[in-house]
Amino acid sequence: MASTPITDFYAGRNVFITGATGFVGVTIVEKLLRDVPNVGTLYLLMRAKKGKNIQERLEELKKNSVFDRFKELQLESRLSKIVPIEGDVGLENLGISPKDRQTLIENVNVVFHSAATLDFFQSLKETTNINLRGTRRVVELCQQLTKLDALVHVSSAYVNSYITEVEEKLYPSPDDPEKIIQLAETLNDDALKELEPKLLKDHPNTYTFTKHLAEHEVAKVASKFPCGIVRPSMITAAWKEPIPGWTISKNGPQGFFMGASKGILRRLPLDPTLIMDYIPIDVVVNGIIATGFYVNSLKVKNGNRPAELQIFHLTSSTYKPFRFEFLTDKINGYLHEYPLNSAVWYPNLRLVKSLFLFRLGAILFHFIPGFFLDLVTKLSGGRPILMRLHKNVWNSLNTLEKFIFTEWHFDSKRLLALSKTLDPVDRKKFIIDISELTWDEYFANTIRGVRQYLSKESPKNLEKARRKDKILLGLHVVLQLVFYYGIFKLIIGLTGVSSAKAALILPVFYYLFGLI
């Protein structure tokens, strides 16, 4: 494999990664091991979980589907470069033992901080501890590292979601972090909840608020060592690597494609004319790796003094904008091209422009079928989940409304300028310019990836699933005929009109149901 400036930079360098078991973290691990064969040791911050120690969790990590292609290339020997470090960003000193901390201090060259709590509904106490104080703890460790060449902090494009035209720069801190930390430590959740509106101000939730504060923790040390902040938007399935459509995340479109392919999710509150900012996971990981290289190269050019903090948007809205109107007539086609053998009903996803109409549709198309399907599941000895799932969605709508019906424009000129400075080979190996991305092909691959990696259905049973899909179509048509025949008879029974007049009224009901 030919060497390039980026692969040369990471060759022999040891990397410390937080959030290594998450969507972003595990993809960083795979990419470095696959495309930077001479990378040094990868120290992964991990915590024991569900009765499993970190060695057991490491073995679980190695079985992640992100390594499927890696194993096909027979690169498993490189997994020996991974060294788990027991710890947690939510604990003092990251929960790392003195011995392990000393190992990191003496050996780590690059730090990728991707650990965070992404829950929009989490309490301010928890998000402050993980997102704000967790970042501070990582920064404190970085200041002790004797060979640090770069720190890359994974933030979010939505840390500045209180404005809709966002630049690649550090915006003023929304509050004093010391005050927020003190409040989180001294007040209980109920008292904090009462204070939240006053503290958050224009921030929609505790996630964006604490992630915004966390950026300033990185900014404070940018003069001491090379620092970069990357701000991805909604991170979606892989565009090219490791496999087109690969994903382990149920957030964003992957989650609703998963529900729609089951035939469970039939309505989605979404305005197809709005730009939805999606960015593939492989582009995000390439951006993180490239940023680590770049901030160090600036230090070298600057007489071995760190340059100013570098901030990059890993986004699509101003460069390769996507609107669901591009796919309105194609989504269901993709769902039937890659159907599930485990589908409970014929997939038919429809986008609804208002929450009011969505709620009406949810009662008819989600709650009523969900009730009966849960009943059947319970009677057959299974665990009913549909009603709970639909209730959770219903209860979260008001909180998510801003993110569903707001169009943001995230400027990415600095990221594109970074791409142009890269070596031509690096530009192809670590793609951050999405000019060649085709949304139609991308979402077809995403739905295929959701089928394989989230719904756990093998490509081998695709033909069987397609046969079932045709059967479900027949049942769907029969049910619709029965339903509208019932409406037809109801019109006659309630109004006393003739069958001919009832037949003329029936299209009105068809149109009205079409709105929801």
TrEMBL record:
<feature type="transmembrane region" description="Helical">
    <location>
        <begin position="471"/>
        <end position="488"/>
    </location>
</feature>
<feature type="transmembrane region" description="Helical">
    <location>
        <begin position="494"/>
        <end position="513"/>
    </location>
</feature>
<dbReference type="GO" id="GO:0102965">
    <property type="term" value="F:alcohol-forming long-chain fatty acyl-CoA reductase activity"/>
</dbReference>
<feature type="domain" description="Thioester reductase (TE)">
    <location>
        <begin position="17"/>
        <end position="288"/>
    </location>
</feature>
<dbReference type="Pfam" id="PF03015">
    <property type="entry name" value="Sterile"/>
</dbReference>
<comment type="function">
    <text>Catalyzes the reduction of fatty acyl-CoA to fatty alcohols.</text>
</comment>
<dbReference type="Pfam" id="PF07993">
    <property type="entry name" value="NAD_binding_4"/>
</dbReference>
<keyword id="KW-1133">Transmembrane helix</keyword>
<keyword id="KW-0812">Transmembrane</keyword>
<dbReference type="GO" id="GO:0005777">
    <property type="term" value="C:peroxisome"/>
</dbReference>
<dbReference type="InterPro" id="IPR033640">
    <property type="entry name" value="FAR_C"/>
</dbReference>
<dbReference type="InterPro" id="IPR026055">
    <property type="entry name" value="FAR"/>
</dbReference>
<dbReference type="GO" id="GO:0035336">
    <property type="term" value="P:long-chain fatty-acyl-CoA metabolic process"/>
</dbReference>
<dbReference type="GO" id="GO:0016020">
    <property type="term" value="C:membrane"/>
</dbReference>
<dbReference type="InterPro" id="IPR013120">
    <property type="entry name" value="FAR_NAD-bd"/>
</dbReference>
<protein>
    <recommendedName>
        <fullName>Fatty acyl-CoA reductase</fullName>
        <ecNumber>1.2.1.84</ecNumber>
    </recommendedName>
</protein>
<feature type="transmembrane region" description="Helical">
    <location>
        <begin position="356"/>
        <end position="377"/>
    </location>
</feature>
<dbReference type="InterPro" id="IPR036291">
    <property type="entry name" value="NAD(P)-bd_dom_sf"/>
</dbReference>
<dbReference type="GO" id="GO:0080019">
    <property type="term" value="F:alcohol-forming very long-chain fatty acyl-CoA reductase activity"/>
</dbReference>
<keyword id="KW-0443">Lipid metabolism</keyword>
<comment type="similarity">
    <text>Belongs to the fatty acyl-CoA reductase family.</text>
</comment>
<keyword id="KW-0472">Membrane</keyword>
<keyword id="KW-0521">NADP</keyword>
<keyword id="KW-0444">Lipid biosynthesis</keyword>
<feature type="domain" description="Fatty acyl-CoA reductase C-terminal">
    <location>
        <begin position="365"/>
        <end position="457"/>
    </location>
</feature>
<keyword id="KW-0560">Oxidoreductase</keyword>
